[in-house]
From TrEMBL:
GO terms, molecular function: ABC-type ferric iron transporter activity; ATP binding; ATP hydrolysis activity
Keyword hit for RNA-binding: no
Keywords, alphabetical: ATP-binding, Cell membrane, Ion transport, Iron, Iron transport, Membrane, Nucleotide-binding, Transport
Name of the protein in its database record: ABC transporter ATP-binding protein
Organism: Tabrizicola oligotrophica
């Protein structure tokens, strides 16, 4: 059976619906990121699955066994879930080894073996006898991860587990954590408000807004086929081209877009990410060529160019009207303001 199944989970606080009809399922070894702005109900969802918050409605199953809603409600400690929160909440009076051993049952030889195994996996072998206050933030995070994974939870629930860390450390810790989660094979539900983190960690992203999951899919699909304008804007800046439908088409500087099902005169916004606009360097000086594979090119004049590290952002004033579009170019590209160039939309996007 599926490792974690959540059906139509709902919760209100003081008459306000905070989680509304949330359903999801996660297989063993899979990482799902629950992504959305602060206050949209992510933590409440996670806390209901953990068993520390009571749902008003819905069902939760782990390995096919009801833990809420379709039989007796199991308490948190009987659900086989591991928890990791933003403040790692290590026990200050226990050693690193004592912290990792805390949730373990069985004979002491087996416990010692499991603790040693995990400390090796999180690269803290020499730290077993230290206390939390002797460790850096990154090291404490690794102890908390080892502690949560030690009892081999079937489901790992993680609420903003990296937000207490230095920017400089964060990506490395994320990657190491992901590798260990995959090795241990739990079903993982990770709550975050950062799209970059979700893109980096998730097999599947569940995008949440005002208590509801509005879209679910692999990072590639969520990024390239957002369900609406707000979903698009959550992941990057967006360009908006305002148009008006005529027949089944909306006209833009990049040619006509198919927008069927609207009466003539309906306002239509075409949304394009900066990353999906490209500059046609070949065409510079040649004039437009309508057979080009990436669609109709449009002429723009550089208004501003900035280098951001991985990419450069170039703002263009387009030939017609007051339209300003931003294109992302990988690496360094800093044309002078006033430079005329041709822009195209990447067809594959
Ligand atoms: P997120 O994790 O997405 O930031 P939360 O699930 O923590 O969102 O909170 C969603 C909403 O529910 C917030 O408006 C929060 O203030 C409210 N909320 C959470 N827990 C409680 C509670 N125990 N009592 C009243 N309101 C709550």
């Amino acid at each position: 059976p599926t490792r974690l199944t959540v059906d139509a989970l709902s919760r209100a606080f003081g008459g306000r619906q905070v989680v509304a009809d949330v359903s999801l399922s996660i297989e063993a070894g899979e990482v799902m990121c629950l992504l959305g702005p602060s206050g949209c109900g992510k933590s409440t969802t996670l806390r209901m699955i953990a068993g520390v918050e009571r749902p008003d409605q819905g069902q939760i199953r782990i390995d096919g066994v009801p833990v809420f809603g379709a039989g007796p409600t199991l308490p948190p400690e009987a659900r086989g879930v591991g928890l990791m929160f933003q403040d790692f909440a290590l026990f200050p009076h226990l050693t690193v080894a004592g912290n990792v051993a805390f949730g373990l049952k069985g004979d002491s030889a087996a416990k010692t073996r499991r603790v040693g195994e995990l400390l090796e996996k999180v690269n803290l072998c020499g730290f077993a006898q230290k206390h939390p206050h002797e460790l850096s933030g990154g090291e404490q995070q690794r102890v908390a991860l080892a502690r949560a994974l030690a009892p081999r939870p079937r489901v790992m629930l993680m609420d903003e587990p990296f937000s207490g860390l230095d920017n400089r450390l964060r990506d490395g810790v994320r990657d190491a954590t992901l590798a260990l989660l995959k090795e241990e094979g739990a079903a993982v539900l990770l709550v975050t408000h950062e799209p970059d983190e979700a893109m980096r960690m998730a097999d599947e992203i569940a995008l949440m807004r005002a208590g509801e999951i509005v879209q679910r899919g692999a990072p590639y699909n969520i990024y390239n086929a957002p369900v609406d304008r707000a979903a698009a804007a959550f992941f990057s800046d967006i360009n908006v081209i305002r148009g008006v439908s005529k027949g089944a088409l909306t006209a833009t500087p990049f040619g006509d877009f198919l927008t069927p099902g609207h009466a003539d005169g309906t306002p239509v916004d075409i949304i394009i990410r900066p990353q999906h606009l490209k500059i046609d360097f070949d065409r510079a000086g040649r004039g437009p060529n309508p057979t080009v594979q990436d669609g109709t090119p449009a002429r723009g004049t550089v208004a501003r160019a900035r280098f951001l590290g991985r990419e450069s952002l170039v703002d263009f004033a387009m030939a017609d009207g007051g339209l300003v579009l931003t294109a992302s170019v990988p690496g360094v590209f800093l044309p002078k303001p006033g430079t005329a160039l041709w822009l195209m939309i990447r067809r594959d996007r």
